[in-house]
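Handout, tutorial session.
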Amino acid sequence: MTRWSRLIAARRENILTAFRAIREQKLRSFLTCLGIIIGVATVILMVGVIQGFNRQFIQQFESFGATLVQFQKLDDRFGEGGPLPEEQRLRPNLTLDDAEAIRTFAPAIAFVSAERWGGRPAEVRYRDRRVQEPSVGGVTHQYPETNNHFVGQGRFFTAGEERHALAVAIIGKSVAETLFPYTDPRGREIAINGRPFRVIGVFEKKGGFLDSGGADMQLVIPIGQFDRLWPEREREYGCIIATVPKKAEWVDLAIEQGTQILRERRGLRFNQPDNFGVRTPERNIRIFKQVTGGVSAAMIVIAGISLLIGGVGVMNIMLMNVTQRTREIGVRRALGARQADIRQQFQTEAITLSVVGGATGVLLGLGLSRLVALVSPFPPVLSPWSIVAGLVVAGLVGFFFGTYPAYKAARFDPIEALRYE
């Protein structure tokens, strides 16, 4: 028999011995591996949930246009609590004139839409049906192109209707289904906070999870009409200026040109920072991933603690096994087994025990992920590397915490071990 054949046979025998010990002492083995099971299951579930949440978030942002560039009063504050910084609170509002300047003097930009949102309270009615607290926006006629949010039924309002601030509205799919479950909404008159508006279009179904109803719970009206309903929004916030470059690769150029125009209009010197924010899907996605990365780090710490506890359990059970099998070790040494053979035997058993716990944790994590997928709007995304990583980490825990018991067993004096009772 060759050296490699003997080595493989020895390892196989060690693994079979470990499985026999697990079968004979099921409860003790389960309690020993409990920490590893919880740790690996946490890793599997955490990775799946974070990846699923990231995927839905990215799809939601990109659904409004991967090249959308928004100029706004405030910076995005994902993951930041507390009051608004005074520097941002005191910034001047963006205005319709700012939007017109960008439209006129930024050659890289194809479409510009000034928008106001957040009118509260908002109640939308059609006869005895109503939509409570929908998202109402005042926009310009280029809103569909800038936000990749197009009309599925009817039409959007024209530049002339915007200029004359006609009382027309385009409603989201969910708003239409609530107010007009059996009727074509086009041409119908709805009431927004008691004022009549004629529905001229219904947006395509968009979906979303970033707010209570996503884009399907929105409705938009000409910005002039919005200012009549909520005049305070112009004073408090101004407007958002949504833009889209003429070419997808011109996003950075559009940001540069729009930023330069706003800086000049605000009289900022070269050494003064921008007193407005710039928002793009790519920037939001990057910031959001930083936030979820922090959550992932916290979950990894929790999983690491569970694995540490599981590793200590493995070491304790292996030390107990070494003590209980002292005479067996003495017999093997008397028959010619080397210290390396004893060490490999107990390390293999520790690794096998940990990997069994890791495999159980993987199954538990997959089951919990399936359960989350049934109740969550953003189902977990399971990747093969997370499963492999869970098993590898479990094996490494067994190797690390099984090393000391294995070396202790290998250093037994054969004569003393044979005398052990």
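The second record follows below. Compare its token runs with those of the first.
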Amino acid sequence: MSAPTTIALVVAGGRGTRLGPGLPKQYLPLGGRAVLRHGIETFLAHPAVDGVQVVIHADDRACYDAAVAGLDLPAPLTGGATRQASVLAGLEGLAAANPARVLIHDAARPFVDHGTIGRTLAALDGNTGAIAALPLADSLKRGRDGRISAGLDRTGLWRAQTPQAFRYGDILAAHRAAAGADHTDDAAVAAAAGLAVALVDGNEDNFKITSADDFTRAERLLAQRLGDVRVGTGFDVHRFVDGDHVMLCGVRVPHDAALAGHSDADVGLHAITDALLGAIGAGDIGGHFPPGDPRWRGAPSDLFLRHAGQAVAARGGMVAHVDVTLICERPKIGPHRDAMVRRIGEILTLAPDRVSVKATTTERLGYLGRGEGIGAQAVATVRLPP
């Protein structure tokens, strides 16, 4: 097999401290998918990109694995203490593949588009490097003590973006030579090595998420792109059998009985799964996971719900909200509600305020009122591209 022509190197080793405590920004959920997954999927779908290699922080492997589950990617490489060190680690890690070209991209830019990727690669035909950038439109002022001290000429000034494309051997040598320096981006590393770097038109939407305001902007932009709002419903019921616990919304709840089912009989997750599949017209849980298939005997139902979430993502969509109501006389749901919300959020990469878990009874009417089992009904809202 011939060596790959182009590899996208996605740098995801930053800590994102300006967004506050918690997950690094590249792993925060954006429309049901981690921020870095948006860009990775775009590169994977581009016909001129042969593969994607991600560079992560040593402490982030679990977050990374959850964020890219189901994608065809090699194991991530471990970065260094700075972005420049992480890029060098990534470039060194590509030595065995020895691609002709490499695209270097910041994981915190989720809205990179095919046009920008294509223009950047095309510019390499006559240059050793090329970067996506936007001409500066705002007036520039130099300030001192809270007042303008001088105006600056903006003629010829550009705002650099990523991806930044280079011939692999050239940028690897440039980064090796620049090790220990403090350049702001790969174009600066290339310039320090005397490489000619072209400017190509970027995209205003290809901004880098740095602050909370940036994240709000990203959510707003994603919502604008996903104008087809769908709603699906789901219902499931399982009867009680002998046992000592039930699985409800991904949480093990101690009880004096269990629920009968081919899988773990989690009625809450089953109902949400059906609601998501229904919203995108993809059938029901039984069509995707036939109850007669021995592979699913005793299977944890988070597999089914994660599959439904991935089916929405495969359509270019996002899960906006899920609401599930558990219907039973026992066990009591209230003490476990917060854990259920968290677990559903983990499976679908949703913030807690996008998940609702409620409980009700039938006032002792019918089979659920007689305590013969547990039922669940769910509503899911998804957003798809028009």
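Points raised in discussion: Residues 228-384 form a domain with the 60s Ribosomal Protein L30; Chain: A; fold (CATH 3.30.1330.50).
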